[in-house]
Amino acid sequence: MRRLHLSELLDFRPDQGIIRLHEQRVVILSAAAMGLLRKELVSMLGQETTRRLLLRFGFADGYHDAVNLRARSNWATPIDGLRAGAMLHTLEGIVRVEVQRIEHDEKTGRFEEEVTWHDSYEAEQHLHHYGKGSAPVCWSLVGYSSGFVSACLGKEIYFRETACAGQGAHYCRAIGREAASWGAEIESIRADFQAGNLEQEVERLREVVGLRLKELDRRERLLERRERELNLLRERINRHAAARHFVAGSRAMQDVLELAARVAPLDTTVLVQGESGTGKEFIVRLIHDQSPRAAAPFVSINCAALTETLLESELFGHVRGAFTGAVRDKAGLFEVAGNGTIFLDEIGEVAPTVQAKLLRALQEREIRRVGAERNISVNARVVAATNRDLRSAVDAGTFREDLYFRLGAFVINVPPLRDRREDIPPLVHTFMVRAAARMKKDVRAVSADAMSALMNYSWPGNVRELEHAVDRAVILANTASIRARDLPPEVLAPSRAQASDATLDLHEQERRSITRALERFDGNRRKAAAALKISTVTLWRKMKQYGLS
After folding, report:
1. Is residue 215 assigned to a domain?
2. Residue 181 Cα to chain centre, angstroms
3. Three-state SS at 43
4. Is residue 146 within 8 Å of 59, Cβ to Cβ?
5. Same domain, residue pair 157 and 169
6. Cβ distance 371 to 377 under 8 Å?
7. Which one in 12, 213, 233, 245 has a CA-CA gap of 20 to 30 Å to 487?
8. Residue 351's domain is classified under what CATH number?
9. Do 76 and 166 reside in the same domain of the chain?
10. Segments forming the whole domain that contains residue 509
11. 386 DSSP β-pair partners
């Protein structure tokens, strides 16, 4: 048949901004724009629904083209119309069609056509946006061919793609047959082209998208509300810290307060870790004061200050006659705390037997008094603190791993003063004003050389040591300004021994301190423990840990 030319098909009316094809208005869209539209459809509706939508779109497009082309052309046979359709698709720039074979028996109605598609814009755009696919992707082309041939022959004809450039093939191949020849597959093929089913699916997806948008909007409002609540909580915590003269200007301490603010409203066990004198107890008290349990009791106990038996009795209570001196029933701190908070300070010093009972209290939310036969339910929130590395203690076998994970549901690490030196000047000023008022002295400033010495010192005792150093300086100051000579000697000129100790491992420093204390008191453990400010039980455990006899 004679080849068609685009000028014969299209009626260009540039003065009106109109292009017509067979008296129907058409528009020219770039392949990139169609590719973006396809991508948006896949994002909104999913790939399967988009496939069916584009099949139906292509079917309608092909059917209308065939009807209009047939009205303007004199086809000797329907086969001429099929070849005209292939040429039209090529002229439109959608794909270059090469008809491989056409078999048509008018008597039996059998039809089969095999085509090759070169440079499919659909495959090109799919590769651009998604890369190689696992299934054929020329959905609108399959729909167009099905619609065009169905209009030409006046019966149901459906095409399927057997190879696709979108899968990595060199070109696309498709085969079309009348409905009966597809056998058992025809039901699924018809379902793909059914507009009613597709409309229902799109409507269902629209409802799902609508519900998701509502849920997203609800979550955004909830997030905004929680952010406002968190900001209010931050403000309250900053006011709380300022009222108690707790300096937290450094980024590190602001992060600590942020963690405390976030965990305070939650009923979570908290473990506060940090060296002695860093402000752990303030953080613990802040968590209680900003929690829903603030109106309930806050009870604390130093686990390192009591022997194993006394600690067990203090925590869990005892009944009369449980041991010598137990003349009456006594409630433990878990009971006394009620719905409040129990603070376990120096939790790393607890003996193994007490560790086991603590674990049960945390797991089962119940305790048993010493010497009692029944359990008591408890509801206190547990917050613990330690200046030891509990993870290392677990590895060394001196602390239960299961208890560590129970206590460490939320860990806050308070940095030492040497790691937040920007807090030193405001801390010095706070301590100076407080000490001057207490001692009724007119001390209002710190000299540059004194502040330099304070900034350069390593502060092994952290904030507590700094406060004592400033108190001493205020006592010794004979002018309105603290001078370097008013500071403790170790701050001005750390001894060679101290400088050496600072480089030693913390465990080695601890071992040396215990050894010196024992030597000083000729092996008297009670006096050595008192000098070290630890219990005799802790001293015995440390001696065993470091192999000291």
Report:
1. no
2. 55
3. helix
4. yes
5. yes
6. no
7. 245
8. 3.40.50.300
9. yes
10. 504-546
11. 273
pLDDT means per 10 residues, the chain with 549 residues, are 54 63 66 87 85 89 82 76 78 84 88 93 91 92 92 91 93 94 90 64 65 80 77 70 68 87 90 91 90 93 89 89 80 92 93 91 91 89 92 88 91 92 90 92 91 91 93 93 92 55 61 83 84 80 79
Residues 6 or more apart whose CB falls under 8 angstroms from that of 456 comprise none
pTM: 0.51
Residue 77 within any structural domain of the chain: yes
Q: Which two tokens stand for residue 107?
A: 């008597």
In single-letter form, the type of residue at position 242 comes to: A
- Determine the Cα–Cα distance for residues 539 and 531; give it in Å rounded to an integer: 11
3-class secondary structure, 236: helix
Q: How far apart are CA 515 and CA 501, in angstroms?
A: 14
Give the integer Cα–Cα distance in Å for 294 and 341.
8
Contacts of 351 (CB under 8 A, 6+ apart): 308, 311, 537, 541
Same domain flag for 256 and 398: yes
Write the DSSP string, 194-216: -HHHHHHHHHHHHHHHHHHHHHH
Quick one: 516 and 460 in the same domain?
Answer: no
What's the CA gap between 450 and 473, in Å, rounded?
A: 10
Q: Distance from first CA to last CA of the chain, Å, rounded?
A: 111
- Residues 106 and 207: their CA atoms lie apart, in Å, by 47
- The rounded distance, in Å, linking the Cα atoms of 250 and 48 is 55
Where does residue 321 rank: exposed (0-12), middle (13-18), buried (19+ CB within 10 A)?
exposed
Average model confidence (pLDDT) across the chain: 84
Indicate the length of the chain as a whole number: 549
Which CATH number covers residue 528? 1.10.10
Select from 429, 494, 438, 412 the least CA-distant residue to 466.
Answer: 429
User: Please, what is the Cα angle at 219 between 213 and 221, to 5 degrees?
Assistant: 105
Structure-block tokens of residue 173? 């191949």
Torsions phi, psi for 32 (to 5 deg): -65, -40
Quick check: 120 and 141 in contact, CB under 8 A? yes
